[in-house]
Amino acid sequence: MADKISFDAPRGMRDFYPADMVWRNKVFDAFKAAGEAAGFEPYDACVVESYELLERKAGEEVGEQLYHFLDKSDRHLALRAEMTPTLARMVAQRQKELHFPLKWTTIAQCFRYERMTKGRKREHYQWNMDIIGEDSVLAEIEVLGAAVDALKRMGLKTDDFKVHVSSRKFLGSLLEKSGIPAEKHAQVFLALDKRGKMPDEEIAAMLKDGGLSEDETKATFAIMDLKSYEGSPELKELFRLAGIAGFADSLVFDIGVIRGLSYYTGIVFECFDTQGEFRAIFGGGRYDNLLTTIGGEPTSAVGLGFGDVVITELLKSRLGEGAVKRKGTSIGFMTEGERDAALSLAMRLRREGDRVDLALRPQKPKKFFSRASEANAAKAVFIGPDDVNAGKARLKDLATREEKEICL
Hints:
Layout (H helix, E strand, L loop, with lengths): L17 H20 L3 E2 L5 E3 H8 L9 E3 L5 E4 L4 H10 L8 E10 L11 E10 L5 H16 L7 E7 H10 L7 H8 L7 H10 L4 H10 L9 H13 L5 E3 L13 E7 L8 E5 L3 H4 L7 E7 H12 L9 E5 L5 H13 L4 E3 L6 H10 L4 E5 L1 H6 L1 E6 L5 E5 L1
Helix pairs in contact: 1-4, 4-9, 6-7
């Protein structure tokens, strides 16, 4: 006898039942609306890439987390762990034809084999916004402004989250002034990115293993206590422009924001909930050298990755189930005699632009209204024999319980 097949999704993967899709749509709708409002153009791409492309971009520990395989023609392929390498490939492919700067956005499903923790799966969707070919800090402002807009469209307020901002360029200059040579900066960035995830003693050991002396290690930790960005012209300009754009109150300077991946070159940022309950909501920064690593021509770029897992957990925690708006109309009927009238009304309302869920069989009123409420309908019409005879029924608002007549 064959073993019983498990009905569970593979470990780290997710199924989305209709109740889950309500939340996913709330998040995705905000992503799409904020991106469109800020003038970002949508794009998409294949989920499978060449392993060589992803490995070249990934670096550090991410290369070990790729889902990769040989196809039937012995091509080494992988599921994308993020969208940025694919974006770089697409831009490099048509770099002579495209008109820069580009403002592109997508919602991409990504896969990464790693240890699962709160807010981290092995599969997730990620909203990406990237501006390619613009050197000014206004590119960072456009990306950050759209991300803050999306959070507010989801129902969060400014005091629910803060975007922590720093600059790798600024941190690098501070390290050099402290006597730490540029060739050691990559190791410093990698170690400091672990801060908060492991004790400072282990961070210090990582710095020592990376070739830093005891004095250099002390100087590094001293820099991490810095509270002012006055020595960074680009950060001063970022905060000034954010003030004009109206979201400076959503930003805080945090020299400890590193972003571990080595391709970041300038301003970097990560967004966290203010209660410190969850992992980073989104992160990103300037990556001016990425295209050259895959063979493209030098081009400046700023990008952001905003996953769906953490934000969905945060929304459920802060807003509760009532945050998902009811929409559409449910229509039911008591006997087969009212079915035609129900169908006619449903089609009429659909032509008028309403979302209508039509019952497929006769039901008792209590069961119909219970199902309509579970389906998160905003309104409901239940048609009985007397309604058909009168040519009118009652349209009920399921939130306020108010009713009004509707012609059949």
